[in-house]
Every structure is written in structure tokens, then in C-alpha cells.
Amino acid sequence: GPHMLEIPKDRRENLQKKLFHMQQLLPNSGLPNLDRWHSLFPLDTKATRNSTCFGYPSWMYKAQNNKNGRHFALRRIEGYRLTNEKAILNVTKEWKKIINANIVTVHEAFTTEFFGDSSLIFVYDFHPLSETLYDHHFPPNNSHNRLRNTNKIPENLLWSYVCQIANALLAIHNAKLAARCLELSKIIWENNRIRLAACSILDVLHHDSPNRKTIEELQQEDFVKFGRIILALATNTPTLNFNNIDAALATIVPRYSTQLRGVLEWLIKPSAPGETKTVETLMPMIGARFANFANFVMQESDEKEFHLMRELENGRIARLMFKLSVVNERGDSCGVHNWSETGERLLLKLFRDYVFHQVDADGKARLDTNHYLNCLSKLDASSEEQILLTSRDNATVFVVSYRSIRQMLDRAYGELGKESKPSATGATI
Known about the structure:
This protein has 429 residues and is of the alpha+beta class. It contains 12 helices and 10 strands.
């Protein structure tokens, strides 16, 4: 039936919401237009400025690029005065190379005074409908999800997060960089996909710091922060006191597997003397879980491809409808009086009647979506099947194949194309 060509309701609604969020505007926002960015829209869920991670107040905006029309996420570091332009160029040059499914891609950074101060702006990919991992699992008390943070997070979901963060760190550490700002409030969540959303910022802010740590030290800190994120989720305590790690780890024992506890201990506790933690060392510890996660992702990919194939069919049918609509009932055209009623075009009109204007025995309109789709699919496939086309006065009958009708349609459309001026877009059907 026709429902076979539709995306499932929940997926369709989710995509529609994403498109709405992408296009959402805020008139009279008071936000400036920057040199190459316009239509700024605030993405922060809280009115308070967040300064814990960076040491400066920071804000998030959605904005549209003047050049390509695409939407991006801008993170503004308020009140920061850049002293070394190379800090931006060197850092973003390295981070731009990292394209990873669990990292929000970094595009560029620049300074601006359009906000009335000296601000540093980082440009990232925009992921509509995302929320922070903190807000997802620890929503405010007035939220309709306020009871969610009292529930145990399923272990397979925690392992999914472990696999995704490990995947991100593998790419970052192999590029001789460090994630640094690994916090619940700086990781975004959307449909259980998580992405590190604040990469590169601290690299710029601390570029010329006299107390700057080595990349090796920062990478070791990444593992500790990684472990603390998962432990905070496992204990349902976002503001976990990490002075007593053993006590915190002990609280998860009845709730989660010893394997998860073992991974968290390895992440959080200091390495043995002479040893350095690496993602390559971590991978065998989570290998079976990673295989489960990869299998789930591939199955989901198969499902999405199945629905994409349906949409491809929809697109083909839509293009046929465009052509039929352009040719049918055309009137005078191509120097011919009543063009669409003469020659082969008359058969195309009768085919339109055959598909869409059928009536039942009582002369009432027969509405049958299956019939429409069936006929158009056969037309698209140039089927050799023959059908009976009858003129409205029943005086003339034609027996013709779908293949012949398709050839007539393409010829008629091509004839119109020869006499028309190219469209502004130059697009063809």
C-alpha cells in the first residue's frame, strides 16, 4: 500500500523537527550580524553564562553563513583578547583535519568586537535537536523528564557512550592532540549518538600559557575525565566528589558489571610506574562491547538505507508527475494550436485519465492510491505491459504499453525543452 513508500512516523517527525530547528529565527534578538554570519539564534538552554570549563563566559549560537547558506554552531568566548594570531591558525589547522562520527567538526576561529567586547568565536558543525549529555540525563526539576535522573541508566547505554568516547579519543590522540574539555556539559547528545562539542578551544586559550602542559600529560588527563563522565552517569551524581574514587566505584558494583567497573578503574586511577595509558590499550578491554555497538550501528544504517531507497522511488515518481503536469492541458505551444490535444500528447492525456480519473460503476470517482503508484512505477520502469486507453466520449480506444507512453512523455517534454529558455538553476528533470 501507499504506507510502504513512507518513512516511519517517528523518523519523519524527527527529521521535520530538525528542519524546523535549522530554519528557526528570532526576530529582534538584539544579536549582531558578524562579517560572514547572520541570523544568530541562541542555543544555550540556561540564561546564565557558563565559565567553568574555559575560565571565560561562553555562549552558543546557531548562525547562517553568508557565502554558502549553511548553518553552523558558533561558540563565543566572551571577553577574551587574543595576543597571538598564530594560536588560532595553528590550532584550527590541526583540528580541521579530524573528521569523526563522535566529534563535532571544527571549521575555524576568529575574533570579533561586534558583541561590544573582544570575543573569540569558534565555528563548528551544527547538529539540530542536540542537547548536552548533562541536560539529557540530569534535566532541571521543572522538566517533564524530572524523574529520569532517579532511574538507573542501562548498562548497554553506558557501554555505548564508552565506545563512542573511545572512538573520539582514538582519532584525537592519533593526531597528537588532546580533547581536554571532556565534561557532561560539553558533550552533545542526540538519539543516543554523542559528540565531543568543545574541541580546540582550550588549545587556543592556553596556547601561550607559561604553565602549559605537554600533550602527553593532557592525553593522560583525558582518560581520567573520560572515566569520571561515565562514573558520574553510573552513580547518577553529576557533581560527584572524586576525592574518594574507591567509594564511588563501590557504589556501582551491585548495579553494573565488574567489567564496567574494571574499565572505570583503569581510566580514573593513576597508571602504574613507567606505564602510559593509550586508547590502543583500552580497546581490548572493551572489544566485545565495541563489536556489539558496531553491529547495532550497522543494523541501523541498513534500516536507514531501506527508507532511503523508498524515498528514491518517491523522487522518481515525483519527477514523472512533474513531466505529466507540464505536458498535460498545455494549450497552444511549440507553434501548435491546442498542442497537448494533438498527436502523441493526446495519448498522454488519456493516460492521465486512466491513472487518476477512473470512476466506479455508479460514475463516482475511484480513489485508489495503490493504483496510482502501481501505474507510475510501471511507467518509470518502462514496462512492456499493455493497457487500454479510452477517450472520454468512448469513441476511440488505444492499446499501448507503458514503455511507449514513457517514450511519448520524454519526447513531448523534450520538445518543450527545446523552445524554452534554461531555468535559473539549470536543473533538468
